[in-house]
Please model this.
Amino acid sequence: MNFASLPDRRAALDPDGPAVCDGRQALTNAQLLDRVRAASRHLQDLGIGPGDVVALKLANRLEFVLLLFAAWRLGATITPVNPAMTDGEVARQLSDSGARLIVAEDGATAKGVATLAVGELHAEAAGSDPAPRVDSSALALLIYTSGTTGVPKGVMLDHANLDAMAEMGRQALAIEPADRCLLILPLFHVNGIVVSVLMPLLAGASVVIADRFNPRTFFGLVEHARPTFFSAVPTIYSMLTALPAGVPPDTSSLRFAICGAAPAPAELLTRFEARYGFPLIEGYGLSEGTCASTINPVAGPRRAGTVGLPFPGQEIRIVDETGTEMAPGHVGEVVVRGPNVMRGYLGRPGDTAQVIIDGWLHTGDIGHLDPDGYLTLAGRSKEMIIRGGENIYPKEIEDVLTRDPSVLEAAVIGVPDDTWGEVVVAYVQPQPGLTIDTAALTAHCARLLSGYKRPSSLLVVDSIARNALGKIDKVSLRAAHATPAGARVGQREDRDEK
Model:
């Protein structure tokens, strides 16, 4: 199945069946096809064609889904843009992706790129409708993710990747036409696109698009929309578990919920299930693998503390530093193989060759398999920080900090947090003879970094710890941060918990 023609197939099979809705509008399958055709013709009139890249800088809304299918109908590629990014971050992604058009909420201009305000998107087609271009090798999504160098890279996912991942999910989760998915994760993430939109639509199910997540109104939305499943990150489940006791919500429509994007404590899963009465199943994956590689079974044995079994059609191995496969119970790097593995990083063949070796995607994550094939994650070889499901890479923040003339060096670490899972903490060392103004440095970060990337604590130190090789010793920094504040010698702390 190719997603370029999925709206046509759904309209032919069940024209009056529900397809997609948000808080403003609801579409049947036939209406979805009509709106996709209109949007596709609009993009075509703006000069978009095969191989072109369209950027979507949008909040969660029905038009995001329309534009996905409209662009694919023309053979074009979508690159989702986080609306919270700074202008500089957006410009960098547009330039690297080669985007010809950006669709945004307000139509604000972007240098060198045509802009379309989402409210101006045509709802009715004028003229002939372009027939869907069905090509499994065509590039479908460019998902941007930073690496340890701090430079964002475009993960290239073609239609074959999306088709494979959505079908794997349909099989593993037993998604049927009667299912109804509640989308609460942002659509600029591959998880939101693949798990909460493409997978249910492929299965003949329907999708309800929620606005920004609000723990106080979430279960009211569940009672109104009657979804059968949803996907979220551990931070969301932690917020829901922490809600005050009251009248239990009606969760009878829910078959299960998925927990992914960041490690979740087994205790959180147990507490959530005990309180709300439906299974919370944990999985694991990454953008380079088109979202997901393992999942705990919905119907079979779920093992708390693990991230489950490989999806159908994927293989998981644990390897040592030489790439040799290790026996169950032994800790090593997690590697993945299957039709879901990305085509590569856009314009970065060297980086691609480092992570895809003989068809195996080297994740950089550390874990082990038990004798039954369940994967347990033991840590991350990369220094990535995951705050509320958002991936944060220290090098990018360190580069911003050291652009301040008063900062000689910076070291960024993630520290545990009950709400967000991890938060960003930065150690900064002043230039000789200078004093670091933490208020000014905080404002500097606010200008150059999205809110979720900004340090929650800035610690000024006389010198940053190093190991025997002269490299910054982040293990020592994490240990030092865990000590009482009064025991930190030569450190001054500025906290901004926004």
